[in-house]
């Protein structure tokens, strides 16, 4: 019987995946490793405050760069998800009891780290009556209360499309409401069986209708075709998505979905140009880009693209958010794409 290191029996899908050896990465998939003072300080803080971060749980390749620059993404709701996506490193299982003190600890860490912009995401909690909506909303509210100068990006599951749960989260007024579609419709059900493509688009449309800046992510290298990526971008924009990140799939382990292809940096640059042409306010596209990478800069791009002048731009908490010239923002985004090329 095949089991994981913690004794869990492997799913048949995981056994089948494991028959394909983990792929060798191309040269352009190397991320800089800088274990400096800032990285060590943030690492110690996360451990001492008993926090889960996506940076570690999801094996993000930018952890050294982001933490050294004092940027981090927080994972709430524990480190066990009630759903299983074939690309995701976060474990599937029975989550622990809801920790109602977690929003305060996250907010205090944001304050201690003196972050200008914090990204918060979490696992799906289908075991809870509200799907975890209170936890997501309360985390935003307390960060706004304790850190009035900090913008908050909230990356959420779909809450099974329940309007009351979505509205509870929207009413917390994060500066950006993100929900990732991750892949194209043809292979969506196979890769994300707990979600549906149309429902994910509906989450973004509802968030946009609620007056929020919206964001999503597409992962390449999981079996999609280029024309399908173009179409998915068009569908995202039509649903009201303001910001988009486009990334390369990195296989977390042998039991996860094998990599279908390594997308060349030139294709990422082409997709960035295509997405900008569709009208997205901010685009980040590159092999090592992740959905929360340089999230504050994408938010600034969305603010700059809004037709009504807002000076200074403020979140619901009254915190000032930088409103740079749109041309300068786009120039910086392009430099980030080139960096990963």
TrEMBL record:
Cofactor: how bound: Binds 2 [4Fe-4S] clusters per subunit. One cluster is coordinated with 3 cysteines and an exchangeable S-adenosyl-L-methionine.
Subcellular localization is given as: Cytoplasm
Q: Name one GO biological process term.
A: protein lipoylation
Pfam name, any one? Radical_SAM
Instruction: Name the residues that bind [4Fe-4S] cluster 2.
Output: 81, 85, 88
Q: Annotated pathway, please?
A: Protein modification; protein lipoylation via endogenous pathway; protein N(6)-(lipoyl)lysine from octanoyl-[acyl-carrier-protein]: step 2/2
- Which part of the chain is the Radical SAM core domain? 67-281
Show the stretches that span the lipid bilayer: none
One of the entry's Gene Ontology molecular-function terms is: metal ion binding
Where the protein is mainly located, per its record?
A: cytoplasm
Keyword Cytoplasm included in the entry's annotation = yes
Catalyzed reactions: [[Fe-S] cluster scaffold protein carrying a second [4Fe-4S](2+) cluster] + N(6)-octanoyl-L-lysyl-[protein] + 2 oxidized [2Fe-2S]-[ferredoxin] + 2 S-adenosyl-L-methionine + 4 H(+) = [[Fe-S] cluster scaffold protein] + N(6)-[(R)-dihydrolipoyl]-L-lysyl-[protein] + 4 Fe(3+) + 2 hydrogen sulfide + 2 5'-deoxyadenosine + 2 L-methionine + 2 reduced [2Fe-2S]-[ferredoxin]
The family classification in the record reads: Belongs to the radical SAM superfamily. Lipoyl synthase family.
What is the protein's name according to its record? Lipoyl synthase
According to its UniProt entry, this protein's organism is Rhodococcus koreensis
Q: What is the lineage of its organism?
A: Bacteria, Bacillati, Actinomycetota, Actinomycetes, Mycobacteriales
Gene behind the chain: lipA
């Amino acid at each position: 019987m095949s089991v994981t290191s913690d004794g869990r029996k492997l799913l048949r899908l995981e056994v089948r995946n494991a028959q394909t050896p983990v792929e060798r990465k191309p040269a352009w998939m190397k991320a800089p490793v800088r274990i400096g003072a800032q990285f060590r300080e943030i690492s110690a803080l996360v451990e001492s405050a008993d926090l889960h971060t996506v940076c570690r749980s999801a094996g993000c390749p930018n952890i050294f760069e982001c933490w050294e620059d004092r940027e981090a993404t927080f994972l709430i709701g524990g480190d066990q998800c009630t759903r299983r996506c074939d690309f995701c490193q976060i474990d599937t299982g029975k989550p622990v009891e809801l920790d109602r003190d977690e929003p305060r600890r996250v907010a205090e860490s944001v304050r201690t780290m003196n972050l200008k912009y914090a990204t918060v995401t979490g696992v799906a909690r289908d075991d809870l009556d509200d799907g975890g909506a209170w936890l997501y909303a309360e985390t935003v509210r307390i960060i706004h209360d304790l850190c009035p100068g900090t913008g908050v990006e909230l990356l959420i599951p779909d809450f099974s499309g329940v309007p009351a749960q979505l509205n509870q989260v929207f009413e917390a007024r994060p500066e950006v409401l993100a929900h990732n579609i991750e892949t194209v419709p043809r292979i969506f059900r196979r890769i994300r069986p707990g979600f549906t493509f149309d429902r994910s688009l509906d989450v973004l449309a509802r968030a946009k209708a609620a007056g929020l800046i919206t964001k999503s992510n597409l992962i390449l290298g999981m079996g999609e075709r280029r024309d399908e990526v173009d179409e998915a971008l068009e569908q995202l924009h039509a649903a009201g998505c303001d910001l988009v990140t486009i990334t390369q799939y990195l296989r977390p382990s042998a039991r996860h979905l094998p990599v279908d292809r390594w997308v060349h940096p030139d294709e990422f640059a082409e997709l960035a140009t295509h997405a900008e042409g569709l009208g997205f306010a901010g685009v980040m596209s590159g092999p090592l880009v992740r959905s929360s990478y340089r999230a504050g800069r994408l938010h600034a791009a969305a603010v700059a693209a809004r037709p009504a002048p807002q000076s200074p731009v403020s979140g619901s908490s009254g915190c000032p958010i930088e409103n740079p010239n749109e041309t300068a923002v786009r120039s910086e985004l392009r430099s980030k794409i080139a960096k990963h090329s």
